[in-house]
Amino acid sequence: MKRILAAVAAALILFAGPASASVPSSAPPALSGDLTSAEVSFRGSGNLLLHGSVISPAGAEDERAGVVLVHGAGTGTSREKLLGEAVAFARQGMSVLIYDKRSEGYSTFKRSYAQLADDALGAVETLRRQPGVDPGKVGIWGLSEGGWVAPIAASRSSHISFVILVGANAVDPLRQQSWAVAAGLRKAGVSGSLVDRAEPTLYRVIADGGMFPEPYHDSESILAQVRQPVLSIWGVHDLLTPPRETPPIMARALEAGGNRQYTFQFFAEADHAAHQTPDDGVTRLPELAPGYAELVGTWVGQATSGQAPVAQVSGPEPVQADDSVEVPPTAWWESAGVQLAAVVLLLVAFGAYPVVALVRRVRRTRVEVAPLRAARLVSAGGLTVLLGGFAYLFYVIMTGVKLAAPGPLLAGRPVVWLLLQAVAIITAVATLVTAGRLRRVATRGEQARLGLLVAGGVAFVPWALYWGLLLP
């Protein structure tokens, strides 16, 4: 069942390329004369061979600190994606290890934060053995998804001396993603049942069908096990993480474990990755937020000398227009399996009517009963809403972050969604009309054909209500 759902979603979403292909070893990064690069290889989870580069300041002193950078979400991600951060941190006097992210065992539908944490631990041990690096001063940095991975690694190893998180989430991944898409849609002017009901419902079904990896990862319990000093950074225009909600949850989790050596810093005019943004988080510039790299350098020096600040929070207030909402697991009656069965049954009920008509025409079978216009509306309307509704919903969640593109709006509702709702209403009304004409049909064959269609129309109403198609 999960494989069927995954295949359907993949076809609708049109994901590009196989996610299981191995990431080739990248070429050594081109650096300016003040920096050096050394190529390294190490074993990650499952003994997978991973490749990376250690970037250091030229002529750097011995006993320097080091940091491993952990990627955010995405398949086929090479080390070059974090080269800007690596160069900036190296210029603060550290050795920085960046590596090509695994793609074996990591895809759109499958990934393990624990596995990624083991990869990061392999990188940490490699960096600790590099010439000039003090093995007692090596930490880990995680961006976005890496903000879930890095704390797992830190909770498993006393060899990690500090933790830096950027754009990290303290809510579970499913809640975070649902919020990000909803926020993008609301920023585009969308309101009503599409964003309030249909979008979170789709995410719940996707998660239940096994197509959303690690949906309920408990970051709080992991953070409570982190004993190292923590520096967490957010851009005030973070559109992927609820930046106002996350810090208090993170602080609560750390303090629950007895850790008060945390520093939270917000950067103005910065996005999810703490890069500069000219348009409130929509566009990411290559440049880091002013002062970000310097803060990392200063704070790492404090953390590795036992002088990490205690419970320090500073910077401008983050921008977050709407709170995230819990996205609970589905009940049995709304599970992915039940949803799939309902869709199949509705497709059969609505599709049988035109199929029988087509067969009759091909066979040139004469029928005494004139076709009902209302019955045609039920069949055509039901099929349109089923197929068009899911196609539009998948399109919405794929374009709902940052540059949300729901199409033209009317009174805060996408015109496409309003049309689907109008067709859903027509389908429901036409079902009543068809049911009223059912007894007047003389032939049993036609009664069975219309009866199946009416049954589908009756079942369609609660289904459409559940998905918000019959709600304002």
Automatic annotation (TrEMBL):
* Chain ranges passing through the membrane: 336-356, 377-395, 415-438, 450-469
- On whether Magnesium is a keyword of this UniProt record, the answer is no
Extract the Pfam families matched here: Hydrolase_4 (PF12146)
What is the protein name given in its UniProt record?
A: Alpha/beta hydrolase
What species is given as this protein's source?
Answer: Nonomuraea antimicrobica
Q: Which UniProt keywords apply?
A: Hydrolase, Membrane, Signal, Transmembrane, Transmembrane helix
Q: Which residues form the signal peptide?
A: 1-21
Domain Serine aminopeptidase S33 stretches: 63-176
Q: SUPFAM superfamilies from the xrefs?
A: alpha/beta-Hydrolases (SSF53474)
Show the GO MF annotations. Answer: hydrolase activity
